[in-house]
Design goal:
single chain, alpha+beta, two-stranded antiparallel sheet, about 20% strand, globular
């Protein structure tokens, strides 16, 4: 099974499902390169997102980033 990862959602699972693969492709298509407001890395995320998946997870756990 192929490994799927992006800065929007992290690791993707159930990629044998055609609908999941199509959602992944659409997510990649609409994502843009921008600077994460948390870590400052240049990441490819959806235009409406400000944080990469790693920083979003940390914020959800209460980390001050």
């Amino acid at each position: 099974m192929a490994e799927y990862y992006d800065d929007n959602y992290g690791h993707w699972h159930d990629m044998d499902d055609p609908d999941m693969r199509e959602f992944y492709k659409e997510t990649q298509r609409v994502s843009v390169w921008k600077k994460c407001q948390g870590c400052g890395r240049r990441v490819k995320i959806k235009p409406e997102y400000g944080y990469c998946n790693s920083c979003a997870d940390k914020r959800e756990k209460g980390w001050d980033i």
